[in-house]
Design a protein that fits this description.
single chain; Rossmann fold; 30% helix; globular; six-stranded mixed sheet; alpha/beta; seven-stranded mixed sheet
């Protein structure tokens, strides 16, 4: 089911050092129909001391992680606003007459829908057969395969050579990163552009996003480390814009031509050097900060449980799985976890074995405390809780533990 690495996946150097050990955990999205003993995999963040790339020590088989997926893009209301912004950004770089777009890991076609409305010729590819099926039912052509160099050739011959490629939070998921980047380089038209979105590694330490570390996310990139990979395959970043996804991501705009870098991008390069993000010293106290957060969160939970209050969570996200298992919070602490996703309803969380329930009015009368686990959607969740007339205490788990009345 998994293997441990002995060398960097990017530069193949063997000089790796541990940044953070989150213990052994089951894969975050391995939700179960009943409580069973699950296979646990080491969840350790390493740093390559040669090329500086942050990556996990273990690789779980991609067929296990992605062949059937539980995250549907349109689950979040916040992403609907971002979709319009993203499409507008892409439109600004391409003439109306030539817009052939391929999205890698297109999920249920949520973003492709918007591009189609704006006159783009679209095609999606996604390895999750259950999700690809949903997209195809909506007449959004989606190939149910993993993207790589071989599949790129197939797309080029059977469909088209895109001048726009979108990779939203997919590159960090791929073990053989050179295969996917090489495929992008191979299929992208000469004057085309790729839009590569990834959670920005600085946020792990700066904002304490340790819950973003889970087995699906093999890599944690800075601008420099992502640039290193792209350059190996004849791809060059020319600009970037910020994304609110996952609590702080960036979207690199990449070309096959070595064009002048934008002033915006030059500022990011200088900022990374100034903050020493790619140096070992930047990650020195990350482990201690995570341990301290764990102590504070457990203490908060213990204090709230003393008065026999019924406690629930909100947001059975993959990142919540890391936090729950690292902090050893389970079904002894939470009655259940609310989540709007129909796919997750009545399943049990990985490792922590907490029942997931679809939120309904009558259920909010059963609990007095709700821990917001999907903290990156806090505003959206609080608005919903007020709409459901929840009258109790809410606890935001990150980026710091915060108790409020709803």
């Amino acid at each position: 089911m998994f293997k441990l690495i002995k060398k960097c996946r990017v530069c193949y150097d063997t000089n790796l050092s541990s940044v953070l050990n989150l213990g052994k955990q089951p894969p975050a999205n391995s939700l179960q129909k009943k409580i069973i003993k699950q296979v646990c995999v080491p969840l350790t963040l390493l740093r390559c001391n040669n090329c500086f790339t942050l990556q996990l020590s273990a690789t779980v088989k991609s067929s296990y992680l992605f062949s059937k997926y539980l995250w549907v893009t349109r689950t979040s209301d916040g992403i609907k606003k971002y979709r319009k912004y993203f499409v507008k950004k892409v439109k600004s770089y391409h003439s109306v007459n030539n817009r052939k777009l391929l999205e890698i890991a297109s999920n249920d076609g949520f973003f492709l829908e918007e591009f189609r409305k704006n006159g783009f010729q679209i095609l999606g590819i996604d390895p999750a057969k259950n999700i690809a099926k949903i997209a195809n039912k909506k007449k959004i052509k989606t190939i149910p395969k993993f993207f790589n160099k071989k599949v790129a050739e197939l797309i080029k011959n059977k469909f088209f050579s895109p001048n726009i490629i979108i990779c939203r939070n997919v590159i960090p998921h791929v073990e053989n990163i050179h295969d996917i980047i090489s495929g992008i380089s191979k299929i992208l038209s000469k004057n085309g552009k790729a839009y590569i979105e990834f959670h920005y590694a600085e946020n792990l330490n700066k904002k304490l996003h340790y819950d973003y570390i889970y087995h699906e996310h093999i890599f944690y990139f800075t601008y420099l480390t992502m640039k290193n990979v792209l350059n190996k395959h004849g791809l060059f970043p020319i600009d970037y814009f910020k994304s609110p996804i996952s609590g702080g991501s960036i979207v690199l705009i990449v070309s096959k031509n070595e064009l002048r870098e934008s002033n915006n991008l030059k500022k990011l390069i200088l900022l990374e050097k100034k903050k020493k993000i790619n140096l070992r010293i930047y990650w020195k106290n990350f482990k201690k900060k995570c341990q301290m957060h764990k102590i504070i969160l457990k203490k908060t939970l213990k204090n709230l449980a003393r008065s026999n209050k019924i406690i629930a969570g909100y947001g059975a996200s993959a990142r919540s799985s890391t936090l729950l298992n690292y902090c050893k919070i389970n079904n002894c602490h939470f009655k259940f976890i609310f989540d709007k996703s129909i796919i997750k309803n009545n399943l049990y969380t990985a490792g922590s074995n907490i029942l997931i329930k679809k939120p309904a009015n009558h259920m909010f009368r059963k609990v007095q405390v709700i821990f917001i686990l999907a903290w990156n959607f806090k505003d959206e969740i609080v608005f919903f809780l007020k709409k459901m007339k929840f009258k109790g205490t809410i606890v935001t788990v990150l980026t710091r533990v915060k108790i409020e009345k709803c």
